[in-house]
Amino acid sequence: MKARNTILTSLFCLLLLTPCALWAAQEGLRLPLPDWLTAESATYLSGGISESHLEKHLSLKGFETEELQEALTTEIENHIPFKATVLLANASLQRNAIAASNLVANFEAYPTFFGSKTVYIPQHDALADYPSTKQWTLKRTKKTAEGIAKIASQVPDKNFYLVVADMSYTSASNPAHQLVANALSTNDYLEVLNEGTEETPNVHVVSLTYDDDAEYYRNYYRTDHHWNGYGTLALYRTLQATAKLPYTVEEPRPTLSFPGLATNGSYARDGLMLLNEAVEEPAFDLTGLEVQNTELPPIAQADSVEALLAMGPIAEYSFYTQWYGSSLLTAQSPLVNQASPSDKRALVIMDSYADSLHWLLARNYTYLQCYRDIRDGEEGDFTLIDRINETDADDIYFVGSTSAYTRPPQYLPHYFDLPGDTTSSKN
Amino acid sequence: MVFSSTVFLFAFLPVFLAVYFIMPKRAARNIVLLVFSLLFYAWGEPVYVWLMVFSICFNWAFGFAISKTGARGAQKALLAADLALNLLILGFYKYQGFLAENINRAIGEEFIAELNLALPIGISFFTLQAITYVVDVYRGQVKAQKNPLYLGMYIAMFPQLVAGPIVRYSDIEAEIDNRHATLAGFAQGLRLFCVGLGKKVLLANTAGTLADSLLPREAADIGFVGCFSGVAAYTFQIYFDFSGYSDMAIGMGKMMGFDYPRNFNYPYTSKSATEFWRRWHMTLGGFFRDYVYIPLGGNRVKTPRFILNTMIVWGLTGIWHGAAWNFLLWGLYWGVLILLEKFFIMKVLDRLPGFVSHIWCAVLFFFGWLLFAVTGLGNIAEWFCAMFGAYGWLGTSTLWELQSWSYVSLVPIFIIGSLPWAPWLRKKLQAWAEGDPHRAIVAAPQKGNTAVPPCQAVLEAPAVTPGRARIVTAVNVLADVALLAVFVLSAMSVVSSSYNPFIYFQF
Fold first, then answer.
1. Which of B495, B502, B503 to mutate to test the interface with A (most CBs of A within 10 A)?
2. Mind telling me how many Å the CA of A99 is from chain B's nearest CA?
3. Which residue of A117, A317, A321, B397 has the smallest Cβ count within 10 Å?
4. Which residues of A touch B206 (CB under 8 A)?
């Protein structure tokens, strides 16, 4: 009995002390511990690390404002041993329970863990967003459309193209879309965008929506919300027909593969379900394009595949962003085309979907500048008309998911203001 | 701070245990416990720690004064003043908003400002504990505590501060000065702590995910299936949450050498409302019995007064749980049921097979928790209607959307977790090892069932053979392994609950 109690107590104390021990080993002794043993691997899983700033808040004032408590909590969470394994195993246990429940119901999609907003689609071994039912987003989208129409009517010589990605949470191809009452589809947003811009002939709404899930996963990643290179090409062809773009992508495109790379994008990270997706991308022909930045994403480098593989875990957890360039990099890197078929200039108002598309668009213009105004997290007092004037653009593209079009009324209160406007369009 | 958080499990608890057990003397350990309890309290609400300190000071002063005053009249006046102060503080922080809202609504203008005060954590518990101390001093059942720090330790003691059990001063009076922390006691406490953590994190939180997603919704949106599964999930959530927290508290008390009273005794095995309340939150029931019901005259009064006494107690029980009409309604619901059982229903139930009583009780729990969990009298009415098909099976939702189906595989685990299979197995194993396999076993008796970790069989008589003794030991070892696994799984779940991925990479 005594031995049993001693062993139990010792093991329990040991378990309680593991984060402290890990903290001492990493921060005190600076021992080089493997990533899987520490919380390092979870850093990639969560997409970053929350700095605790413990020393900064280590005071009575810090305690009073509860910043110290928050900092200590973060510090402990940054020193949980085997953190990635713990997170994934816990989600996996819950997912197994859900899968067992689904044996009776046999739904085509189920949540990746209890309360998860990411669903797993066993038939395609793929992940998707929980379908959107937020009717109010349509109103915001309409306001954005009306704002764009207002600006477009002031510059009738310029063309506006509103490109909408068929992201899974509004895509009709998502099997979960059929399982939710009043789920919104990308077509609902397209309808609203068309309604809001119908009086302005120089505004065109362009999209490529999917009904078939198999086709969808050929053009979108199985573990990430973005379209892949093939989806980008397919969209470009649709856009080319509408905008009468001169550059035609030569077919078939050579395929680039990334040996040994097992990718897990935003869905895998949010849903805590690693599917280790092997990716292949079509090689884009970037002839004549010059990037106005010293930092180049792998796609623009000579040894592109090797450059990507050299990036390490970040390439696996954020493949699309790393390969085509992050939105920040894209916005900081205007493209100059020495072999442009025209002397026109383009402005791209984007979220991350333009990271890939802008390389193809740039083949049609002498100069292309991107602004990530409709990306999540962007706020400010700048206006669209200023953007157009600064770029001296002939064609203006909006490229984003359905949710990107809901953002300006909320986050960019003066975006559609014209010089002399006194009221904002804030909703 | 809650027990099921990373900061408690991996920082507060180990540091506390280390400092506590390093102290060689009990006096120093009491001070350590007080300091850590105040830190625990201040963690989430630094400002309100002064309220706690004030409560400790004035309750100590009143208790001391009562003990030093010989005259009964003066003692009564002091007691009344102390009770008034305690209830005033509780009333101000807990019920100010509720009273202001209803009075203003009744008179049609803002007569009392709604202060929107944050509720100090655990105020409902520590106020009752303080009251038991002063009343018991007045009654002469306990001696006044001379050392205010020790009384502070009792009132603020962190294991039971947030969610009980409501420990009376008399329960631990002797242990404050004279308790024995042993390895066996520590290990027993540890086992209970693991059971409680598992109940809270693995069962309650999981059931809570479903309950939280359905309970705030309109009945018309989710129909019968949504309302039924929402309340069913809540039925399990509240039991595992509350009893798990109590188990953890009792376990931590045992680690330090305190014997807190048991708070839950498999309430969902009850066959009547009356029995349910002998098994559910037993320390609260005991408080209202000894400090409200009996002083009102109890059942030694005429029937109308008895009915009034009962309804007062149940009204107070309801409103103690929260400042809202649905809690009052919930308390009165149980009061009425208990009266009906006493006068009519028990006579019928006693003649019927046991399973009928269980079904009767399950229906009672179900509608009781509906009153408790759904806020707003209008919503409650709609949810009742939904239970009888007013909004169809699914309301305006689809079955998939409600997500109830995804919890189906866990229902057997929830049911098993609510039943006393572990004490039954333990007693059966003990009886078999002691050579009396046909011994009559009551797994969870209503009385005398103290908090014991599951499957820790201790032979009361020698085993009939050494082989049987070895099997008992092997089962105990396996139970310990299982409990450690529960702890690891719970810790995994606690860590996972803090997972909050960045939308975009932040490198």
1. B495
2. 8
3. A117
4. 94, 114
The average pLDDT across B170-185 equals: 90
For A314-355, the pLDDT digits (tens) are 999 999 999 999 999 999 999 999 899 999 999 999 999 999
Distance between CA atoms of B395 and B379, rounded to whole angstroms? 15
- CA separation (Å) from A253 to A259, A283, A341, B418? 19, 6, 21, 62
Q: Quick one: which of B507, B498, B500 has its CA closest to B201?
A: B498
Whether B412 and B425 map to the same domain: the answer is no
Which ipTM score applies to this complex?
0.88
DSSP bridge pairs for A163: A206, A399
Strand order across the A345-350 sheet = A203-207, A159-164, A395-400, A345-350, A367-371, A335-337, A289-291
Band the pLDDT of A78: cuts 50, 70, 90. confident
For residue A70, what are the domain limits? 2-81
Other CB atoms within 10 A of residue B71 CB: 8
Residues A237 and A141 in one domain: yes
Given an 8 Å threshold on Cβ–Cβ distance, is A76 in contact with B502?
no
Q: Looking at chain B, which residue has its C-alpha nearest residue A98?
A: B406
pLDDT in tens, B121-146: 889 999 999 999 999 999 999 999 99
Q: Is A413 helix (H, G, I), strand (E, B) or coil?
A: coil
Q: Which of A13, A72, A101 has its CB closest to that of B409?
A: A101
In this predicted structure, the answer to whether residue A425 has a pLDDT above a threshold of 50 is no
Cα Dmax for chain B: 80
Query: In B, which residues are within 8 Å of A2 by CB distance?
Result: 183-184
Residues B218 and B289 reside in one and the same domain: yes
Last-in-domain residue among A54, A81, A108: A81
- For the cut 50, the answer to whether the pLDDT of residue A72 exceeds it is yes
pTM confidence score: 0.90
One domain for residues B335 and B471 = no
**Same domain? B161 vs B234:** no
What's the pLDDT score for residue A422? 63
Q: Identify the weakest region by mean pLDDT among A128-132, A304-308, B67-71.
A: B67-71
B15 in a structural domain: no
Domain boundary among B386, B418, B450: B418
Tell whether B14 is covered by a domain.
no
What is the Cα gyration radius of chain A?
24
Distance of CA B294 to the CA centre of its chain: 22
Per-residue pLDDT at A427: 39
Contact yes or no for B480 and A8 at CB 8 A: yes
A420: left (phi over 0), alpha (psi -120 to 50) or beta: left
Banded pLDDT at B9 (limits 50, 70, 90): very high
Q: How confident is the model at residue B117 (pLDDT cuts 50, 70, 90)?
A: confident
Contacts of A93 in chain B (CB under 8 A): 489
Cβ of B501 within 8 Å of Cβ of A45? The answer is yes
- A77 and A134 co-located in one domain: no
A165 and A248 in a single domain? The answer is yes
Contact between chains at B190 and A314 (C-beta distance less than 8 A): no
pLDDT at A55: 85
The model's pLDDT over A204-262, given as tens digits with 9 standing for 90+, comes to: 999 999 999 999 999 999 999 999 999 999 999 999 999 999 999 988 889 999 999 99
Find out whether A327 and A351 touch, Cβ atoms under 8 Å.
yes
B425 and B408 in one domain? no
Residue position matching structure tokens 């080993």: A25
A299 and A200, same domain (yes or no): yes
Cβ–Cβ pairs < 8 A, chains A and B: 169
Give the residue carrying structure tokens 């001296």: A392
Q: Which residues of A touch B400 (CB under 8 A)?
A: 105, 107, 176, 179-180
Considering chain A, what is the average pLDDT of its residues? 92
In chain A, what residues touch B498 (CB-CB under 8 Å)? 73, 77
Domain ranges, residue B279: 189-418
Residues of B with a catalytic annotation lie at 321
Q: Do A9 and B498 touch (CB under 8 A)?
A: no
Please judge whether A376 and B503 are an interchain contact, meaning their C-beta atoms are less than 8 angstroms apart. Answer: yes
